[in-house]
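Retry 2 of 3 after timeout on previous attempt. Resubmitting structure tokens to design endpoint.
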């Protein structure tokens, strides 16, 4: 990949594994510096050391739990205190959870909303004015193909990702002519810790997964091009299902999705 990230600093949340770690490596390979954010300091520090040894780039780590309401401001303050400039904001942190809404633990679903929606919006609101003031920048919000239809057995997760896609598209239009773009990355089932954490590893939708590297590459390239949406990591059958969404009766669609997302 061409060194399009040269001299650009990317802040990546959820960077300790999966798509986030893959994005960090892609950006470093392109010659860009990094600010890595996640809960697990040990994982971040190991990734930092690996990237520093492989690429001559600066890597900063900030260990924060983004389910905590004050975390976004603390991250912004830490970046400012270190005298760092963020050129690419990559909101990748998020998690899901499988099960009927009325049986799931409400505290877990509330944390999901805090991370997938509130933290993403807070970080965007904090860093976006700086990007606009400089007249250049990229935002990549990691959504999901789950955002394209209601998600029985993942009702809250699907709804949070529908928010992310809608929010990303809306601000993309607001940012037209500012030099800043916003892209929604909507992967299908991806090889990462997500499925196990969400209890989805035994469901039909995760029987065939895309690699985190292929998803991250598509998202990174789409972000640099300023694309609105990047849909990637789908099987042939899933691509056909997405194309048929506008004409599929909603009750039929809901039954299909429930079947795919049930253990």
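Retry 2 succeeded. Sequence:
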């Amino acid at each position: 990949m061409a060194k399009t990230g040269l001299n650009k600093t990317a802040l990546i949340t959820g960077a300790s594994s999966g798509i986030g770690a893959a994005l960090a490596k892609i950006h470093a390979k392109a010659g860009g510096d990094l600010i890595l954010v996640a809960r697990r300091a040990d994982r971040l520090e190991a990734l930092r050391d690996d990237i520093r040894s492989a690429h001559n780039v600066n890597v900063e780590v900030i260990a924060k739990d983004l389910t905590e309401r004050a975390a976004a401001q603390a991250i912004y303050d830490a970046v400012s205190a270190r005298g760092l400039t963020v050129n690419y904001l990559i909101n990748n942190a998020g998690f899901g959870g499988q099960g009927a809404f009325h049986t799931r633990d409400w505290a877990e679903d509330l944390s999901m909303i805090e991370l997938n929606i509130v933290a993403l919006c807070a970080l965007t609101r904090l860093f976006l004015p700086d990007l606009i003031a400089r007249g250049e920048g990229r935002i990549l919000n990691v959504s999901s193909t789950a955002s394209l239809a209601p998600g029985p057995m993942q009702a809250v997760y699907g709804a949070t990702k529908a928010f992310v896609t809608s929010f990303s598209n809306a601000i993309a239009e607001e940012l037209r002519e500012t030099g800043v773009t916003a892209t929604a990355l909507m992967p299908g089932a991806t090889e990462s810790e997500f499925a196990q954490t969400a209890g989805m590893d035994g469901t039909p939708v995760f029987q065939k997964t895309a690699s985190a590297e292929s998803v991250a590459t598509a998202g990174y390239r789409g972000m640099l091009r300023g694309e609105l949406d990047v849909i990637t990591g789908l099987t042939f059958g899933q691509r056909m299902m997405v194309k048929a969404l506008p004409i599929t009766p909603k009750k039929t669609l809901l039954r299909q999705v429930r079947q795919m997302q049930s253990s």
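Attempt log closed. The two ends are 39 Å apart (CA to CA).
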